[in-house]
Amino acid sequence: MRLVTSLSLLLISPFVSAKWQNVIDRLGEPTVSKPTDKYGHSPFNPLFDEGAWHGHLLPRSDAEQGGFPGSPVIFEEYLFYLNEHFDRLSLYHNNQRIQLKADVQSEPGLLTQHLYAQGVDVTLTLRFVDERTSLLKTVITTAFPLTLVFDGKLIQHYEANKPLTELFPTFSPHYVQTQSGLEVQFGRVRSPWQLMSSGTNRYVMQKTLPMHIEINGNSFRATSHIEKSQTFYTTYQYFHNATEQMAHQTKTAQILRSPDTYLSQSELRWQRYLSPVAHYSGDKARMLVKAIETLIANWRSPAGDISTDTVSPSVTARWFSGNLTWPWDSWKQAYALASFHPSLAKRNIDTVFNAQIQPSDPLRPQDAGMLPDLIGFNKSPERGGDGGNWSERNSKPSLAAWSVFQVYEQSGDKVWLAKLYPKLKAYRQWWLTNRDHNHNGVPEYGATVDKAHNNDNGELLFTIEQHGQKVTQYGLTQYVKANAKHQPVEVPAQTAASWESGRDDAANFGFISQEQLTEYIAKGGKARDWHVDFGENRNEKGNLLGFSLLQESVDQASYLVSDNRYLAKIAKTLGYDSEATYFQQQAETLSLYIQTCMFDPLSGYFYDIRLEATPLENGCAGKPITVRGKGPEGWSPLFNQVATPQQAQRVRDNMMSKTQFNTYVPLPTAALNNPAFGPDIYWRGRVWLDQFYFGVKGLSNYGYKNEARQLIDTLLAHAHGLSGNAPIRENYHPLNGEQQGAPNFSWSAAHLYLLLTEF
């Protein structure tokens, strides 16, 4: 079997388009339901489209030709491979199997197989035609009668040596014959960290070709006879429950009555998506196509507790599939989607704001205006669900208005903009009410009132080590005492505050390994430099609103400047001139504060500042925390156009320094000379494309376009797989370019798209 990649092979298979072939490797034959790469994610990259919850792979071997292996399905929140093979076609003449040669091919939104032997030619063309349906067109040209055999086999193991029956005894996937095909039925499983199945969910196959079906345990075999050339159609669908399946019956019938119409509509849809690519060529065009394919693959249609379309971080990453939605990711995804799929961009943003905490909220009315950190298919037990991923421990940075205004400019939908405007204002006000400990208009990152952060009395939770055991304690006073003794202290609110920044274990939030800390102290540093302090935030009645890190973060302050500016633009667009003036004034005031308080002239860089008991004489809340080294937070004032030209020049010098940020893959998430740097540490070394984009966009904002171009060219040349057919990854190794983290990652795709189209 061959993967068609050259012009000579294309001449053999004239049905294959000459553009954008195999941009992403879609080959794969799973033998377990949860295959993993070294990062714990799927090693395969199935085609997903239209927000569907099932996908398809191409066969890698001759044995699997004629079918689409794996039958990947998202069971509410997790990717699961269902069948070793399913509906695999083979041909017989006079009871003898015909040995077919095969060419397989992926294109954006399309999988094709060309099977051929003397006297026989078969083309399989598969596209997604709605949010629950993929449609396969099979065209058989033959000079003699044929017997068609379709077969399938369910995967029996969750992981190697871990049978499904042992891990999930109630799951029991099995084939059931239907009037027009076959379906896989499942039992109910509610395992929040592994598998979620309603018990009425179904994987359904229907054909326009009559078949005789025999089911034998975990396998099936179906046969049909044709006397001459024939074309027939097959639908594949996954439904989360019986209600979904029933609601879709009419649509399924319409598809099967007019299948070519739906296939043509799918093709036209992809032509629209790819229209921006017309201005590019070579590797950059293929990277652009890959970015678009990745974003569309991560699109999930409404299901469970998500009532609008959304874009998840990665359909193939263990903890990022389903319709799991983060605000931080959504702002970036929507910003890029706006130029080729503005309606999906709007719905992705709507999904986030649909979960905005209201003043009447029964659980946390004190957080009115907040956007929860993570929402998804299943709500938390506190919200009446049984999911494990839903999180209200924190929010995400203030880039909402930046994204909303971009989507408005691309869509022109002023009605949508007007609907979002009060929600954006409520979100901004939440930051100033719940995260501004010293009430100076500069919020901090922090943590909500939550069982993970405090006891029922609202006292901060933390753990210390005593005699090799972790001991839980409560209260700010006790926490300060433990820090003073330099005991190893773990405080969940610190984790939540770092999550709130979107940079989970960044050095500026006090994260450093024990080995790195020992080395830092040996060079004259102090353990205290890496301790973080907390403050309780209360309203005028003394009620606890949440906790703040006692440091003002330069990135959040800079994002809030942009938030104010874009709110001013939105207000102006909607005719609220006085509000526009107010937000613009707020942006100018905060910009001056950042320039004055958060820039260190000695090192020429921006830092977070530690809150002191009383403000400094210059009005600053404290001094820059230079001891924790440099990270991408220091170029956020350039991205948000907050820095003075002189400050921007100094930051540029740091960014272009070979001993700091100008690495093999440039702009790591900690400078090489940062005490907490590690090339394989999540947010203290790895290169993330969002922070890279913020960096080069910041350079460009201040006229350093040559430097920005140089860094971009280096990234594109050195980050493994970007110019090949590997998936776009979550992050990249700064010293050797190795792919790291989650594959098929949305915000990496979004920022790759922006890097290619804006520079």
Entry keywords:
759 residues; alpha+beta; 20 helices; 23% strand
Helix content: 25-40%
DSSP summary: helix tally: 20
**3D shape:** globular
Q: Note the gap between the termini.
A: 40 Å
Spatial order of strands in the largest sheet: 1-5-6-7-8-19-16-13-12
Largest sheet: 9 strands, mixed
Structural class by secondary-structure content: alpha+beta
Instruction: Please report the total strand number as a whole number.
Output: 34
Mean pLDDT equals 95
Q: Rounded to an integer, what's the Rg over CA atoms?
A: 28 Å
* Percent of sequence in beta strands: 15-25%
| Low-pLDDT runs | 4-18
Please give the structural blueprint.
Blueprint: E1 2-3, H1 7-12, E2 70-75, E3 78-93, E4 96-97, E5 101-107, E6 110-117, E7 120-130, E8 133-142, E9 146-154, E10 157-159, E11 162-163, H2 164-167, E12 174-178, E13 181-185, E14 188-191, E15 195-198, E16 202-207, E17 212-216, E18 219-226, E19 230-239, H3 242-247, H4 249-257, H5 259-273, H6 282-297, E20 299-300, E21 310-311, H7 327-337, H8 342-354, H9 400-411, H10 414-434, E22 446-448, E23 461-466, E24 469-474, H11 476-484, E25 489-490, H12 492-501, H13 514-522, E26 534-538, E27 544-549, E28 551-552, H14 554-574, H15 577-597, E29 599-600, E30 605-606, E31 609-610, H16 636-639, H17 645-655, E32 687-688, H18 689-701, H19 705-718, E33 729-732, E34 739-743, H20 746-758
Helix pairs in contact: 6-20, 7-8, 7-9, 7-20, 8-9, 9-10, 9-14, 10-14, 14-15, 18-19
